[in-house]
Amino acid sequence: MKLKIISLVRKNIQELIPYQSARKIGGKGDVWLNANESPISDQFTLQETYFNRYPEPQPKSLIMRYADYVKVSSSNILVTRGADEGIELLMRAFCEPKIDSIIYCPPTYDMYVINANIFGVKVRSVPMLQNWQLDVKSIEKKSLGVKLIYICSPNNPTGNIIHSQDIRFILQVFSNTALVIVDEAYIEFCENKSVVSWLQDYPNLVILRTLSKAFALAGLRCGFVLANTEIIRVLSTVIAPYPLPTPVTDIAYQALSKKNIGIMKNRVLELYSNKVWLIKELKKNKYVKEIFKSDSNYILVRFINADKIFLFLWEQGIIVRNQNLKIYLNECIRISVGNFNECLKLINVLKLFVTDSKG
After folding, report:
1. pLDDT confidence band for 29 (50 / 70 / 90)
2. What CATH class does 60-257 carry?
């Protein structure tokens, strides 16, 4: 009798709808505007040449350099495999399966709820208001049994910063009962909006960071958790023994030099200029219904006939992210800001769609 592997799988995993990453969705294009990656890449040369030993569990030199960059103590930092591992570690350490809950506020990053489903943690969904801000009154009402509240700012996929007064309110409401996690994956695109300086005032504040976006190192998978020392200590007990490969630490350390931080900031300015141009050109297209304010390296656009436009772009080799099935995002497409030539090609293909539609 043949073993049915599916019968051994946990029930919640059998029912799990996995995250559809940009690479998993695929496409055969040459203009990739669907994963909020940097279109501009730096080149690094490995300084380390021997790999026969396990790496440091938490590389001190990298942590010190990141601490200097964000202006916090090194004791307030944990290095992780991208910000995604930070999302997971918090649930692993603080949430009792089938008992505790998280709050997430869609439309937002799907990995909050997917990780909760993997760990068997309850999910309390509090949809955003129509202006993409938090419904703080509803969040307060759903506080019972909540251990973690995930807030993405700038929010993905809407692109906007969450009002600081709302984050402060939630930190105060949950000061003795839950951690408030602010995901700042895109904060370098609006660095003056960071809440890192609040860490000393709010013991229940946790901040997630990454080198994937503005630092143009999505392929590196290097992230950071910033929190008070007690939270960092707890997370350190549940993280994998050697989370960061030696080459990752090597390149991440180089990326955080003063010279490369300066290069990153110039790259941010270049992408901002491209974003301004792209928005201006999109407004001229009659199929563009609405363009939402963006504090990040992507824009959310509401089209007329979004599904047809998405497919048309796909067939022309321009891969964007269809958001049409998400709450409040009907007819919406998220577009990462590319280099100027990629932005120009996108605009020209959209003009071609208008022409073809007339025919």
Report:
1. confident
2. alpha beta
